[in-house]
Amino acid sequence: xxxxxxxxxxxxxxxxxxxxxxxxxxxxxxxxxxxxxxxxxxxxxxxxxxxxxxxxxxxxxxxxxxxxxxxxxxxxxxxxxxxxxxxxxxxxxxxxxxxxxxxxxxxxxxxxxxxxxxxxxxxxxxxxxxxxxxxxxxxxxxxxxxxxxxxxxxxxxxxxxxxxxxxxxxxxxxxxxxxxxxxxxxxxxxxxxxxxxxxxxxxxxxxxxxxxxxxxxxxxxxxxxxxxxxxxxxxxxxxxxxxxxxxxxxxxxxxxxxxxxxxxxxxxxxxxxxxxxxxxxxxxxxxxxxxxxxxxxxxxxxxxxxxxxxxxxxxxxxxxxxxxxxxxxxxxxxxxxxxxxxxxxxxxxxxxxxxxxxxxxxxxxxxxxxxxxxxxxxxxxxxxxxxxxxxxxxxxxxxxxxxxxxxxxxxxxxxxxxxxxxxxxxxxxxxxx
Length: 433
Prior knowledge:
Structural class: mainly alpha
Distance between the termini: 28 Å
Number of helices: 20
Helix content: over 70%
Largest sheet: none
Order of helices and strands: HHHHHHHHHHHHHHHHHHHH
């Protein structure tokens, strides 16, 4: 009987279950795998190099899903643009701002990557499975079991055409859009299943690269991570902070302090999605009107991914430099244009960033995909900076668009950020009464 009496408490017990989120354990496992892989590579270099097929196999699994991920996200993304634009001035202004800032962030990633040259001196080599030996033929057989990848650029063009065609169909195209949404759910579930193999892939990739290059690999990865965190910090404080001050007169540090609880939540989950309901509530509390918040924040979560944009271009340059095949200026501009389109619509999905990065490399320099194993190992270390930058970018965007559309109470905003009108945490609790 005591068990039945606790049934009413089950809804509240759903919160811990949701917060527990198994991807948190995946994060810990990847970190442990990277540390273990580095140790094996340093202490037993030959063993480390022999583990390279583990990283190669994981990258092949990612490649397998590139085309479905790109097709679903772009087709749905084009549909989302149409819906957001029909909302009127707010939607159109938001989309224009998001595309401009994402392009700017991608360009900053390329600029920093060209200055620091991350990955220089690593000279990573692709795994060769054709050498003689029974063991190698077994490995080749296992790797051949993974389905081949589909060309990315034709997939991108097809997705754009399908998206525009569905737009022109109006309401009659909605069932097809819903069907693509369902396919996307399956694709992202597959991606999540593959990501649970990431610790094994990261272990093999890091062991192999450290085994081949020693401490140089660890130094290069540390430089990339440090440069990425520093770039994100400068982007938030200097770029976003300056825009916020010029347009609204508000202080970026006051905004960061106001969103401190959300940052802790994002840091613990490595995803800005977890703080979406809180951002909506806090932006309304700060004085931005409900319609502006309701359009800007959810749309920004798909289209305003400043941290992800910086990561994509810096990581691509890291891989190309580490493979000893640096991209020329034309290839970098082509990559920039591709990433502007391909980075839309995959926010908050574990592994989608890796798939987008792989898609960019495959579309421009397919031979670089073999160097992605190293990124798998350090991707998780950069996920917090990505999520925090994406989140801050959307908070700033909401305030800017509120100001431009005259849909913000500036007296309320100043009082809230000064700490005079604190946010009521109880307002976020269901049944707070």
